[in-house]
Amino acid sequence: MSALLSYAGWAFLPGLVTGWIQTIYYGIAIRAGDPKPQPGSPKHQKHKRRIHIAVIIVYLLYTLYEADYLVRQNGDFYRTLGVFPGADEKSIRSRFRRLAAIHHPDKVVPEDAVRHAAAEALFVSMKTAQDTLCDPVKRYAYDRFGPDMVQWQQCVTIRDYLWRGVQTSALPLYLGAACGLGFLSLVGYLNWGRFWRYFSVTALCVLEFHIITRPYPPAILEKVVNPFLVNLTSHPPLIPFQLLVLARKATFTLFIALSHIGGQIQQAAPATSGPTNAQEQQQLGRLEGIAKSQDTEATRLLAMEMAPFSGDEAATKDLRGRIREWLVNNTIRSDPEVRDAMGRALMKKRSGAPAGARN
What we know:
The protein is mainly α. It has helices at residues 2-29, 42-74, 77-81, 89-103, 113-133, 136-145, 158-186, 194-213, 219-232, 240-268, 278-306, 313-332, 336-351.
């Protein structure tokens, strides 16, 4: 139920929180009397995008924290007995005997029904934990599939547990994920971030099948994650199936986050300058044809104007000289900067001339 509420929260919470934060931000950052960006304006949309992306990232981190909190709340057989995941059979049995001597239901007054029922439930859970962890086959299955394997009464060998675990857990999950990704890709919903979606699902599948098919825990858990948790935090060490629970939650939550962030980034991305469809290509083709026809017409008119001077080099030379003189008189000399420079030059010449010659 909690997981469903968490996924449902992605539908409306980010947008709702974004509106609240943007209102509070404008109330703090903009002084009284100054105009606030109006909804729909480019500045308002830019602020909204940035705040929305930040809210999505924070909510993603919160969802992962919530998943980890639920994993810790559910506990595991190792924590029930108070032993580390690498404890041997002798340590487990010894620990169970000490706990049974303390928490045995016979030590509770039968008249206190509530405490007696709680003691019986605790003793049953400790006995189940001991029986599971002291059996190498069941321990192998528990470390990889969690407490659900206790209900698999027909399984005897490791192969039986593996096949049952793949049938009930991994296979439906990844078949559903593949069908869902394929359908969403066909309808165009996964255009942004498609590579990272497929990559994350593939990485999760490889990680899960590596964990459930190897006789030892993954190196990243034994050498990186658990040493960090034990030495630097108060978090208990993770068991392989707990790592898979968190990895699944992170992957599918990332899917939803990418959908939200992708929409914001696509809105902020500038429109491309190239043609996007056949209609635009046709319009560009027409413009190119018009430009070519205009260039051809201008060339033809220029040739007609120059026709009287063809073959007469003297007349052509005289025409070029007159054109050059016209450009100098009407274009260059009419430029304000040129006029100012000529005026300053004349003033310098006149300043050194006799008084009678300055006019």
